[in-house]
Amino acid sequence: MKTLFKSTLVAVAALFAVGLAGPAAAEGERFVFVSHAPDSDSWWNTIKTALKNAESDMKVTVEYRNPPSGDLADMARIIQQAAASNPNGIITTIADFDVLQGPIKDAIAKGIPVITVNSGTIKQSEELGAMLHVGQPEYDAGMGAGKRAKAAGVTSFLCINHYITNPASVERCQGYADALGVPLGDQMLDSGMDPTDVLNKVKAYLANHPDTNGILALGPNSAEPTIKLLKDGGSAAKYNFITFDLSPDIAQAIKDGVIESAIDQQPYLQGYLPVVFLTLFNRYGIMPGNSVNSGPGFVTKDNVGTVEKLAGEYR
How far apart are the first and last CA of the chain? Predict the structure, then answer.
């Protein structure tokens, strides 16, 4: 009986493998993933890992394209170029609805299946006519961080925005402020992405606003220089410091008590799932009926040990 059961499992596995690598896979589906990230933003390495793994698992081709400087007008042109190449599907962020809606709607009008990810909302995705959205509600994530900060006694804060031209980044800061019940105002800092500039701008802000007791960083680009600033200055204990996203330095800062928590939007899901969904749709007409909230989740001292080894690659 055991031998028969084992043989059955082997046969099922073999049939599944044929299903992935057989006639449907031989069609050579090609998908284009368009992000808004500049080349300097290392956070997207996790999504690139997910795309590579999905490409291998589903036996498809996935092209990653982005505007090298993060220019959103350039991103709009990239979406147009992607659509002109007639791929089997496009995966794109909605970094700025107004700038990108035209190219995305044009692609959909051509009959190209589109899934939106990361930046943007489910409502915006539906308005564009995309099949679904895989991402984190940014305002809600910011509000979640703000609730944690309020419980810790934060009354005055700094939101370090390293990508202020992306409306989703402002939503993060606004949600944080609203949870605290204070106006955002000039508590949002346009830091840029250069690490030295970030460090110097944050240092100047904190010196000029000594009542600040909360810090929200929007990702490794703004968090890592701030970690260095607080460690070198010995002032980490003064601030409730929360950041979006993970990196090895952020994980260590959580363990060291410099950062209270990190918001994990699980970017691996944002890269992997859309490729799987589009592949299944192209082969079998299958698509989930709902969008997917990939986050937010909070990484703290209590659970950082389970994710720190995966930071920057899978988390």
Answer: 42
What backbone phi and psi angles, to 5 degrees, belong to 288?
-55, 150
Q: Which of 275, 221, 254 lies closest to 44 in space, CA to CA?
A: 221
Q: What is the pLDDT of residues 148-166, one digit of tens each?
A: 999 999 999 999 999 898 8
pLDDT on residue 306: 85
15 falls in which pLDDT band (50, 70, 90)? very low
50 half-sphere exposure, CB direction, 13 A CA radius: 21
Say what the pLDDT of residue 24 is: 40
Averaged pLDDT for residues 245-268 = 95
What value, to the nearest 5°, has the Cα angle with vertex 136 and ends 179 and 192?
75
257-278 average pLDDT score: 97
The residues, ordered by sequence, that sit 6+ positions from 200 with a Cβ below 8 Å of its Cβ are: none
Q: What is the pLDDT confidence band of residue 27, given thresholds at 50, 70 and 90?
A: low
Going by C-alpha positions, the residue among 98, 105, 232 that lies closest to residue 165 is 98
* Sheet strands side by side (includes 297-299): 188-190, 157-161, 214-217, 240-244, 261-264, 297-299
d(CA 29, CA 43): 27
How far, in Å, are 23, 220, 226 from residue 249 at the CA level?
45, 8, 11
Q: Smallest Cα–Cα separation from 263: which of 312, 298, 295?
A: 298
Tokens of 229: 């600033």
Query: Cα(190)–Cα(181) distance, rounded to whole angstroms?
Result: 22
Please tell me the distance from the alpha carbon of residue 307 to that of residue 135, in angstroms, as a whole number.
19
CA distance 149 to 143: 10
Number of Cβ within a 10 Å radius of residue 181: 9
Mean of pLDDT over the chain: 91
Distance separating alpha carbons of residues 112 and 86, to the nearest angstrom: 7
